[in-house]
Amino acid sequence: PGDGQGDLGVVLQTRPKTKRPPLYKVLLLNDDYTPMEFVVHVLERFFGMTHAQAFEVMLTVHKKGVAVVGVFSHEIAETKVSQVMDFARRHQHPLQCTMEKE
Ligand code: TYC
Fold first, then answer.
1. Main-chain dihedrals φ then ψ at residue 31, nearest 5 degrees
2. Is the dihedral of CA 31, 32, 34, 40 positive or negative?
3. Distance in Å, CA 85 to ligand 1 centroid
4. What is the mean pLDDT of residues 71-95?
5. Is 43 in the pocket of ligand 1 (CB under 6 A)?
6. Is the dihedral of CA 85, 88, 92, 93 positive or negative?
7. Pocket test for ligand 1, best of 26, 28, 29, 30 (most atoms within 8 A of CB)
8. Residue 36 reports pLDDT greater than 80
9. What is the DSSP letter of 32?
């Protein structure tokens, strides 16, 4: 029953919709040729790590093959990846850096 004018609209907006932007992990990949000291320098220079932190993370990548070196907004993650890839290429090292959605 009813008047055929039931409310079929979209009305269930209860919570305010404040969706946080997705975050992206920046990954550093191991290879057989990039010098360890170069990787440590990259982590200090572009990821603000201390020498001790950078050395530890470099060793993790060396042993495990890959590690997350930071988590950022899409734009910052892209910038980090570009900076690392450009820097590695300019120094003729095959170091690879990528990003993936968290
Ligand atoms: N495996 C490299 C070597 O033995 C060192 C290295 C570490 C390279 C981390 C890349 O992301 C990397 N010289």
1. -150, 175
2. positive
3. 14
4. 98
5. no
6. negative
7. 30
8. yes
9. S
Is the ipTM above a cut-off of 0.90? Answer: yes
Residue 30 has pLDDT above 70, yes or no: yes
Could you give phi then psi for residue 101, rounded to 5 degrees? -60, 140
Out of 36, 69, 93, 96, mutate this one to test ligand 1's pocket (max ligand atoms within 8 Å of CB): namely 36
The answer, yes or no, to whether residue 95 has pLDDT greater than 70, is yes
Predicted pLDDT of residue 16: 82
Ligand 1 neighbourhood includes 42 CB (under 6 angstroms): no
- How many beta carbons lie within 10 A of that of residue 79, not counting itself? 14
